[in-house]
Amino acid sequence: MFILKNSSSISQIAQLRSPKFRQTGPNCTLSFWYYNYGQSVGAAEMQLLVDGLKQPTVLWRAYYNMGNQWLKAVIQLGRLPRPFQLSLDKISLGFYDGVSAIDDITFENCALPPPALSCEGPSRFWCRDTKACIDSLLVCDLVDNCGDGSDEDNCNPDLQCNFENGLCNWEQDVEDDFNWIRIQGPTPTVNTGPLKDHTTGTARGHYLYMESSEPHQFQDKAILLSPLFSPSGNGTCVFRFHYHMFGKQVYKLSVFQRTVSNTKGWLLWYKFGNQGNRWIRQTLHISSFKPFQILVKGVVGDGFTGDIGLDDMSFLGCTLYNGNLPTISTTTSGTSVPATLPMNNCTEEEFVCRTSGHCIQMIQKCDFRPDCSDKSDESACVMEVCDFEDKTQCGWCQPASEQMSGNYSIRTTNVFKWELGRGANLYPEQEKHCPLIDHTTCTEEGWYLFADSSNGEFGDIADIATPVISLTGPKCKIVFWNHMNGSTIGSLEVLCKTRNKTSKLWTQSGSQGPQWNRAEVFLGIRSNFQVVFRAKRGVSYMGDVAVDDITFEDCSPLLIPDR
Hints:
Blueprint: E1 11-17, E2 29-40, E3 44-50, E4 57-62, E5 71-76, E6 84-93, E7 97-108, E8 124-126, E9 133-135, E10 160-161, E11 171-172, E12 181-184, E13 206-210, E14 221-229, E15 232-245, E16 252-258, E17 266-272, E18 280-288, E19 292-299, E20 308-316, E21 350-352, E22 359-361, E23 385-386, E24 418-422, E25 447-451, E26 461-465, E27 469-471, E28 477-484, E29 491-497, E30 502-509, E31 517-522, E32 527-536, E33 545-553
Antiparallel strand pairs: 1-6, 2-5, 2-7, 3-4, 3-6, 8-9, 10-20, 11-14, 12-13, 13-20, 14-19, 15-18, 15-20, 16-17, 16-19, 21-22, 23-33, 24-25, 25-33, 26-32, 27-32, 28-31, 28-33, 29-30, 29-32
GO cellular component, one term: membrane
Pfam families: Ldl_recept_a, MAM
Domain MAM: 1-112, 159-320, 384-557
């Protein structure tokens, strides 16, 4: 079918109507091929007209000249329980010059499940009237999969939310950057976000979405908190939800589980990037021997076409918990309250051994040789060997004042900085510029230290330094493994920093290939200095710098006689 212009009136509408359909099943999709070509061809849209609803729902739009070609459109209809029609509308405002056509219209998976003679097994549910046999994980998920509503009868309303009447018992996190928004119909920005909700499949239904336009910035996050649940062993608690991630600049959606209230918990699932203009169902089996909470986190991408939607969130086999989750002290290692020193006769220029009260010279503190019997003189120092497998930075520290961007200050979130990473936590495609395996264990589970170039801007600097090292011996050297692979790698430097001088000991720039490379830097005899790893960001996020297995070799100084 194509449009033949037969009128010279200024505003014209051509409509092509479908037959009337009685209903669809939950997996129904409509596809067709369209042609929209010409200098002033104008817009076209597919509308859903549901009996009893005055407002039509826009399912698809073509805004402009799409070139001299046939293109395929796929529309998710989903479960529509009431009679409906489809209307293809072509609007011409004034001068119309072009060709609009449609061909090969196909409905797929639109029937409800057929009746079954029997339906046995713990993982099956037999529908009351239609006698269809469906998966028991589809029960109480806010979707009428049976066609008679029996799979949604007798469900606990506290374990499900379709956002038609607010957030139910979910809450917005107060410690994130902004909130999820409840909305009907399309999001404000074209070519991103849903056009309709998942519950009703129309513009009348509500859902939550994360707005990616200004003032929100790259990697700003919005977190939604579930109610609290009682312990659930062996994955008997099931979390189901539907998400929508459509747009060229969609970034990331993650689900976390926590048992302590002031932590972000551990990652259960994530999805990264554009997943198409459709609602996608996700099922997660959750195990916990402690009361727990679920966190759903959306992260803003690098632009305004990055809206993310959520709808129809439900729990099966889970029990609400009436208490509160415990909290942990936010005091971090290295900032603990110092213990009372033992009785001693040490001067201010001497170090007091924590257990014995023995006095040693201050230059013997942090010199890679324990001089106190309890080794307390080396306890707040950089570790002689560090493989990051205990998920600490081994004494290397990154003062906030040393995170910089050009010659001006920036806010402390989304800063180019060093952090712990591992291959198991990478998102798709990130392994092209960040190590998939560490050097220590050669697995995706092994940890390393990397400067994350998805933050910051071109030329930004990230420094990470040892505490002050008092003294090193004549053979002292630092050996480490580095990984510099990617199309826009900046540089990595090793610096020696004293109170009034910083000198460059080693430097490497550009991509060095997809492997770990050994480096060795001679230190020799030095006193009261810091070793600094400095990463400089390249022109884009495709250039992470990583280090692993850092070792100070032969660094103990010559023995100092007691005085």
